[in-house]
Each structure stands twice: as C-alpha cells, then as structure tokens.
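Researcher: Here's a chain I'd like modeled. Treat it as a single chain, no partners, no ligands.
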Amino acid sequence: MTSIFLIRHGQAGTRDDYDRLSPLGRRQSSRLAEFFLREGIVFDRILAGGLRRQQETAAIVREALSAAGAGPPPIEVDPRWSEFDLDEVYAGIAPQIAAHDAEFRAQYEEMLERIRAGDGAIHRQWTPADTAVVRAWVEGRYGFEGETWAAFVGRVQAALRDAAASGARCTAVFTSATPAAISVASTFSSSDPMPILRMAGAALNTNFTILDVRGGVAALACFNAVPHLGEPAVRTLR
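Model: Modeled as a single isolated chain. Structure tokens:
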C-alpha cells in the first residue's frame, strides 16, 4: 500500500504579497513537523508545488525532520501541484464582470479600497468579489487567456496519478487547498467543481489529507486533519 499525505501550506502573506509564509504560517509548519516526529511518520518521497509558500512549508518540515535524524529525502518540485493563479484569474475576468454587473463592481471596489486603507482583516477574508470571479472562471463564462479550470484539474489529476504510481511507500505532497480538494474528488470519480470548491474553502493551513493507494486505486483515509494545531488561535483558513 502507498500513502499520500496532501499537505496544505502554512498561512500565507497578505493579498499584495501572498506567495510567502506569514510568521504564523512558519509556526504552523514547525508544529506539523513536530507531529510527524511524535507519530513516527516517515516519508520516503517529498514533493512540493512550484509556489514559494508550498516550498517554504516543505523546507521547514524537512529541516526539522532532518535535524531529528529522521533522514528525509530531498524535496522534489513538481509545478503541477501549484494552486491556480488567482491574480491571473482576477486580472482576466474581474474587469469583464465589472463592465456589466454594478453589484460586483461595488464589491470589487470596496475590497480594493480596504486593501489601500490598510485594513488587515481583508487579507484573511474570502470576499463576495473573490467568489464571483472564481465561479465565473470555473464556469468558463468569459474569455480568458490563462489556465482554464479544466486544464487546472487535468494537471492536478496527472500529478496525483504519477505520485500514486511512483512506488514510494509514503509520500508527502506540499500543495494548496484546491489541488488537495481535486485529489479527494478524484477518489470518488468526480470532477464537479462545486464540491471541490467547498472542500477547498474548508481546508485549514497545514492540514493533511491522506490518500491510501491499493492496486493503483486511491481511497480517502483522512481529510483536513490538524492534530498539531491544538488551540483555535493557530487554526487558520487564509
């Protein structure tokens, strides 16, 4: 049997510098490493997506495992485990929605104003404007030159197939909320975007989801687990 741990990165930065770990995100990552050591969980393969926040989380965990003598393998970077590019989606789709939807335009402008005003809370919230843009992208309602939802799902599913077929006994994949949700949905032979987005929206920072692979078929063993984050103050969604 092969086990694949799908690990969401630690809490990231602010909206204007998102692709890095916050100080709390680094703490969350250290807590995760401590949990793996306590539980005697040993990885013989470590993968990370192409994003900085994913690789920083992987590096913190790997360094802690190495310092404790756990002998972790080197980190392999596979960009197929990267999250979709929300900034690219916004740039391509938000102006098109705003051109004909006054309610969205007001929500979008309010969000931008809160960022400009230094409202710290906006960086940890998923706003109505965010939801509208992502749904429009997922549904393919507007012309868009970047990665489509179908292409995104396809690359993650291909990465999962390769991880499952690698022969590694226990693989850690440091990724993001939506690729992990796509992987879970794949175990139910589903690519319905709405359940995927709901699962992604529930994903806590540095949670791990475990897929067990038998005979080439992945099955869900555990979802969105954070036993290393005991107190509510260190459990974050964004």
